[in-house]
Design a protein that fits this description.
The longest helix is centred in the first third of the chain and has 20 residues, at about 1-20. This protein has a single domain, classed as Lipoprotein localisation LolA/LolB/LppX (outer membrane lipoprotein receptor (LolB), chain A, Clam). The protein is mainly β. A hairpin with a 2-residue loop joins strand 8 (about 165-175) and strand 9 (about 175-185). The protein is about 15% helix and about 40% strand. The chain is built from three helices and 13 strands; from the N terminus they run H-E-H-E-E-E-E-E-E-H-E-E-E-E-E-E. It has helices at about 1-20, 70-80, 155-160, and strands at about 60-65, 85-90, 95-105, 110-115, 120-125, 130-135, 140-145, 165-175, 175-185, 190-195, 200-210, 210-220, 235-240. The chain has a 13-stranded mixed beta sheet with strand order 1-8-9-10-11-12-2-3-4-5-6-7-13.
């Protein structure tokens, strides 16, 4: 259950960290005597629009033809993922939409998010069991208890086999053919769309008594990431987080 909810907990922790450690910087007041510009209204146009407006591409799942792959086939591709970076977009009841940038390589993971102008970076090394929360604007890092480290999307996907998921067929999201599975753990219902070609999750919807949370994975790049991406900059002050 800890792994099931860890990404949601991580996003909430980012919001809390920003609120506690950063705060909001006030806007600089205008200098005395500084002229204030008045925006010039744009000229009105009486021309009628021509043509048919172009709608953005839909991100809703579309039915797909079954590929013949089993869940074990797809999860086999998941286990072979070594290095990937992507954006994680999280929405849910009672919380603002949040986008988190993620770098993942073997046993290392880095996340970066910005809220109210404050950037927070988390660096986790599962091999050495260390986790740091880094505030670039303050050139300061906090050593966080490793038990609070969140699991990666690869770990989350591989873990679903122990929950006896039901295969609901295939659907296409953003041109990616996905196997759709559903499972329930401790009254928490989860539906996951897994990109069949790479075994990587594209969308996860979790339903609890508190509401529905949706995580979408976008801008996925399977690329080589240097080890330096998971290191704190030199000279950063490191403190223990109380």
């Amino acid at each position: 259950m800890k792994k099931l909810m860890s990404l949601g907990i991580a996003a909430c922790a980012i919001v809390l960290s920003i609120s506690l450690l950063a705060g909001c910087a006030p806007s600089a007041p205008a200098s005395p005597g500084e002229p204030t510009e008045t925006p010039t209204p744009a000229p009105s146009s009486t021309e009628e629009p021509t043509g048919t407006p172009t709608l953005p591409p839909s991100t809703e799942p579309e039915p797909s033809q079954p590929s013949g792959d089993t869940l074990d086939d797809v999860l086999g591709r998941t286990s072979s993922i070594g290095s990937v970076k992507f954006d994680m977009v999280m929405t849910g009841a009672g919380m603002p939409s949040m986008t988190v940038k993620v770098w993942l390589k073997d046993e290392k993971m880095k996340t970066e998010s910005t809220m109210e102008g404050q950037t927070v970076i988390n660096i986790v090394d599962h091999e050495t069991q260390t986790m740091y929360m880094y505030i670039p604007e303050q050139n300061m890092a906090f050593k966080v208890t490793y038990e609070q480290a969140q699991g990666s999307p690869v770990e989350e996907t591989l873990a679903i086999s122990q929950y006896h998921p039901r295969n609901l067929g295939t659907e296409t999201i953003d041109g990616k053919v996905c196997m759709v599975v559903e499972y329930t753990v401790q009254d928490v219902n989860t539906k996951m769309w897994i990109w069949e070609e790479h075994g990587f999750p594209i969308k996860v919807v979790t339903v609890t008594d508190q509401g529905t949370t949706t995580i979408e994975y976008k801008n996925i790049q399977f690329t080589s990431i240097p080890d330096s991406e998971f290191q704190l900059p030199p000279g950063v002050e490191i403190m223990d987080l109380p």
